[in-house]
Specification:
The complex is a heterodimer of chains A (about 375) and B (about 300). Chain A contains nine helices and 20 strands. By secondary structure, chain A is α+β, with helices and mostly antiparallel strands. In chain A, strand 12 and strand 13 form a beta hairpin. Chain A is elongated and about 75 Å long. Chain B is mainly alpha-helical and about 300 residues long. Chain B is built from 14 helices and two strands, in the order ααββαααααααααααα. Chain B has a two-stranded antiparallel sheet. Classes of the chains: A alpha+beta (about 375), B mainly alpha (about 300). At the A-B interface, strand 6 and helix 2 of A face helix 9 and helix 10 of B.
Chain lengths: ~375, ~300
């Protein structure tokens, strides 16, 4: 039974600070996903938890134990690597049992545990093979088997699905989700794929440049991103942004106007906002709908018809490129103009420092 | 659909012979190397096979069948030479594997002055063998050599490195290892550096100690380097000549004679046909020992 507690955790390589004070607490049994662009420090953070990177500052607790200086093997963790790191000269059986062998687990107990792990992962028929004889998905399974056989308190996954093809990735994602459900262990998972993050996580930690941008459930992050970065990172296709100017400030609303649109009143948290302020309007592609009387008009650049929905790439008069996802199959001509409308409540205003101005909860409910 | 298949089939049928017929074009690239190889390697090899069957005075040769071989085999010190050659090859290649691996592990770890130490270890490889031989002959002098003088300071009565018949061959082998271990180390360094760091990290998380990481990760995964070092140094050991000649000339007596030095002595004595026959014997000996060894090592490797 172990959660995690990170207290202003820092990591620097010489002068360069890559993790700039991360505070995070993970409950036992939670599935936490670190997500962010390449180089944001998510893997480094995971490796600090694993004990593969020294901690430059702050405290790391696994369960109740301060683990800053504890050897990886004594942290009660297991890790699945992006490359799987299966020893090519050992059979699957030996790979899975390697940790147990090092721990001098008696042979019959070891055998029982290896077969148990193989049964959970449905890979009993692979035990005698060497990693070189396995497909990517099978190797992935063995790597997970090597982790679960040790019954760790915390599982660490470093981009485990990134070497698999798209279809297999979806399958393995579901299997990981099931595995988490069955084992009930704490899992920390690193990915740059926000879809993986959305589908797997109980809690997502969005990182950028070594700083936590937001922590929350997937839906929280989708509906109420804290800032421009999270708004742009979570959600697929990406949120559309356009610079606008505040025309007037009302009670819990602002009226905005911009090159690309006629004045619209949207709910927002208004404190500190004044008419004339430059702000950013964010609208998700799914929140837009075609409408004759729409406030935003753009020129159709590209149409992707997926059958159940149609993804339209639009260019606004200000040359901003927007994506719109329309329900069902729409036949649109490239070059034609398309008028769009959206529910004011679905729009998010970001102030000049990039912070989201979500309206107070009652305004959201309206 | 059928139309596509019908049109597709004849093209496919045509394409196969085109693929199979070899164009002469690549041969032109092969030719220069083939000429050089033929002139400098194949021709002399075949010629030496012929001359080994003759009584040869460099200017004329008489065919005498297998007499040279028969005579070579009757040489009193030949058996001693054969045994010495194998002992020498086994000792030098064994030590080069062990020391080369140990040095490579040391020189790939986080130690100070790593680059400098790598050059130091490799440096003897670049020095002339004869120079090394002469230097060590001086150092190993039983009474005035620096080695024994150093040992005397510690109160140890140093042995007669090169003058004791029981020791001479081993002393030369040690010098050979000193000179050649740099190459083995470089091969091992390349092998160790190529092992992905993930394996060590996975082992560390699994609770492996440094020694266990070496045993279960480094050692098996640098196997290709081990095979290369064994084969190269074993062949090198079997055909060793220059160091032996520079240090002991096969002596004292025939105590450190190897096949190559036996052959050279025949050659010096003007028995060209005989010494050529000796070379053929050496060639066969190397082939007989090394081919099965290579097959065995590579089969184990392929098995993994």
């Amino acid at each position: 039974m172990a959660g995690l507690e990170l207290k202003s955790l820092r990591k620097s390589y010489g002068e360069v600070e890559v993790i700039k004070g991360v505070d995070l607490s993970v409950e036992h049994g939670e599935f936490v996903v670190f997500v962010g662009p390449s180089g944001c420090g998510k893997s480094t953070l995971l490796r600090m938890i694993a004990g593969l990177e020294d901690i430059s500052g702050g405290e790391l607790f696994i369960g109740d134990k301060l683990c800053n200086a504890v050897e990886p093997r004594d942290r009660g963790i297991a890790m699945v690597f992006q490359s799987y790191a299966l020893y090519p000269h050992m059979t699957v059986y030996d790979n899975v049992g390697f940790g147990l062998k090092l721990a001098k687990t008696p042979k019959d107990e070891r055998d029982r545990k290896i077969r148990e792990a193989a049964r959970i992962l449905q890979m009993e028929h692979l035990l005698d093979r060497k990693p070189g004889q396995l497909s990517g998905g099978q190797r992935q399974r063995v790597a997970i088997g090597r982790a679960i056989v040790r019954k760790p308190e915390v599982f660490l996954f470093d981009e485990p699905l990134s070497n698999l093809d798209a279809a297999l990735r979806v399958d393995m994602r579901m299997e990981l989700s099931k595995l988490h459900h069955n084992l009930g262990a704490t899992m920390v998972y690193v990915t740059h794929d926000q879809v993986e993050a959305m589908t797997l996580a109980d809690k997502i930690v969005v990182l950028n440049a070594g700083v936590v941008q937001q922590v929350g459930s997937p839906i929280e992050l989708y509906q109420c991103p804290a800032n421009l970065f999270v708004a742009g990172f979570i959600g697929s296709p990406k949120m559309n942004f356009v610079p606008v100017t505040i025309e007037s400030v009302g009670a819990g609303t602002v009226t905005i106007v911009g090159k690309d649109m006629s004045p619209i009143t949207v709910p927002a948290q208004t404190s500190g906002l004044q008419p004339g302020d430059e702000v950013t309007l964010g609208i998700r592609p799914h929140a837009l709908d075609a409408s004759q009387s729409g406030a935003i008009v753009g020129r159709v650049q590209l149409v992707e018809r997926l059958g159940n929905e149609t993804i339209v790439s639009l260019q606004l008069p200000s040359k901003a490129d927007w994506l719109v996802v329309l329900d069902g199959d729409r036949q649109l001509r490239i070059g034609n103009s398309l008028a769009l409308d959206f529910a004011p409540a679905s729009a998010i205003i970001f102030d000049s420092s990039g912070l989201a101005r979500h309206p107070a909860p009652q305004a959201l409910g309206e | 659909m059928t139309a596509i298949m019908q049109t597709g089939a004849p093209t496919a049928a045509k394409a196969v012979p085109v693929l199979k017929r070899r164009s002469p074009y690549p041969a032109w690239f092969f030719l220069p190397a083939a000429i050089i190889y033929g002139l400098l390697f194949l021709l002399p090899t075949l010629a030496s096979l012929y001359f080994s069957l003759t009584r040869w005075t460099l200017f004329n040769s008489t065919f005498i069948g297998l007499d040279n071989f028969a005579q070579f085999m009757r040489e009193p010190f030949l058996v001693k030479g054969l045994i010495n050659t194998v002992i020498y090859a086994v000792i030098t290649s064994g030590l080069k594997v062990v020391l080369g691996l140990a040095l490579a592990v040391l020189l790939t770890s986080q130690i100070a002055a790593r680059g400098y130490l790598r050059s130091v270890v490799f440096f003897p490889v670049l020095v002339s063998t004869v120079g090394v031989g002469i230097t060590f002959t001086v150092l190993m002098h039983p009474t005035q050599g620096m080695i024994n003088e150093g040992l005397a300071l510690l109160g140890i009565d140093g042995p007669g490195w090169l003058v004791d018949p029981n020791l001479a061959l081993f002393s030369v082998a040690l010098v050979d290892v000193w000179k050649g271990v740099g190459l083995a180390t470089v091969i091992y360094i390349a092998g160790i550096v190529a092992i992905p760091q993930d394996y060590y990290e996975a082992a560390r998380i699994d609770g492996s100690t440094i020694w266990q990481s070496f045993l279960y990760v480094t050692l098996p995964l640098c196997r290709p380097a081990t095979v290369t070092v064994i084969i190269l140094s074993f062949i090198g050991g079997l055909r060793t000549f220059d160091l032996i000649w520079a240090m002991t000339r096969g002596g004292p007596g025939f105590a450190s004679d190897t096949i190559a030095s036996v052959i050279y002595k025949q050659y010096q004595a003007g028995f060209y046909g005989l010494s050529t026959a000796g070379n053929v014997v050496l060639f066969v000996l190397i082939a007989v020992l090394v081919i099965p060894l290579t097959m065995w090592l590579n089969r184990r490797e392929g098995h993994e």
